[in-house]
Amino acid sequence: MKKTFSLIAAGAFMLASCDNTPKFQVTGTIENAQDSMLYFAQSTLDGIQHLDSVKLGADGSFSFKAAAPVGCPDFYLLRVGDHIIHFSVDSIETMSVKAKLPSMEKDYTIEGNESSKKIKEISVMQQQVQARLVEIEKNEDMLPGDKVDSIESIIANYKERIKQGYIFTDPLSAAAYYAVCQSLTDLRGTFMLFNPLNDRTDVKCYATVATAWDGFYPDAPRTQQLCNMAIKGMNNTAQPQQKVLNVDGSKVAETGIIDINLPDINSNLHSIRDLKGKVVLIDFTVYAAKESAERTRLMRSLYEKYHAQGFEIYQISLDEDVHFWKFSCENLPWVCVHETDGSATSIYNVVNLPTFFLVNRNNEIVLRSDFMEGTLEDNLKKLL
């Protein structure tokens, strides 16, 4: 028995020794974090991928290793609770992080990667801007119009600072990629700071970074994402995008429901019938449409008011750019799924976008509309 165990152990050691995959290392300390869990993850185009974790001791020290990026810089994070440090890695390198709670996302230093220092600068500014937006939203002495004007002014100034300080000065850097892909949350909900699909003035920012990355990392998925966004932005018009679907015949009655079972950003399937017992808003939409941000704001308001009473939203995206869809709905609290084959739109005879259906607790459709009409909330309250 001992001999068998020794052979197994020896085999495991040999396998570990044969792992010649190039790796990078991140080490450091998190003060005031004893007994807290520190998570190490990778920010991929498909979402956050957990890599490792450790329970911090009295000294708060940690050390993680992971496979070095191939093809282009990649992005990672360290998280304790809601506190997150973002950083980039170029290749085989050793990085050192020193931070402390309760404000580790601001109170930290990072050595070993110059772009990560720039990412920290951007992240801290982003947090400051976000805090100002929240402060304005909570200011009951301000008129709604004044709030909108103040928010737009703050965002415009921040964008200009990011453009001149990080995007146009060094577009090949990981910091430039991080800068152009960041998001904020305001009265409209969560939105891309630079959105070439809806704002022509943002196309240049994406195109600048895309061109630089395409010259050095032509085969990298992140480069393809940048190029796709830039090209689509160039082709977009200032008019709202309306996608017309030619469907023959009506395949849904005014009452009753046909099930939809579609994947979310993590490829988990969600069925409408699983929501029986709740009042459900089935929403067919395109996040890239100009009016999408305003509709999302309205839907968020309804969701926050009535979710605790049994209201749910099942939102179906028909965006052609899957990465843009995932980015747009990453922080939305309701069910967000994506359709590519036209089956759901065909079943529900959806001709114009956006279109929504209101479903009662018995999975019966009671309202259909192409617009977010003022009567929607009244009907919703009656069903609840």
CATH level-four homologous superfamily name of the largest domain = Glutaredoxin
**Measured on Cα atoms, how large is the radius of gyration?**
24 Å
Q: Termini separation (Å)?
A: 66 Å
- Beta-strand content bin: 25-35%
Mean pLDDT: 83
Structural class: alpha+beta
Please bin the fraction of helical residues: 25-40%
Order of helices and strands: HEEEEEEEEHHHEEHHEEEHEHEHEEH
Count of separate structural domains: 3
DSSP strand count = 17
Which CATH class of the largest domain applies here?
Alpha Beta
Low-confidence parts: 1-10, 12-17, 237-256
What is the makeup of the main sheet? 5 strands, mixed
What is the fold named in CATH at topology level of the largest domain? Glutaredoxin
**Order of strands in the sheet with the most strands?**
15-14-13-16-17
- How would the global form be characterised? globular
SS element count, helices: 10
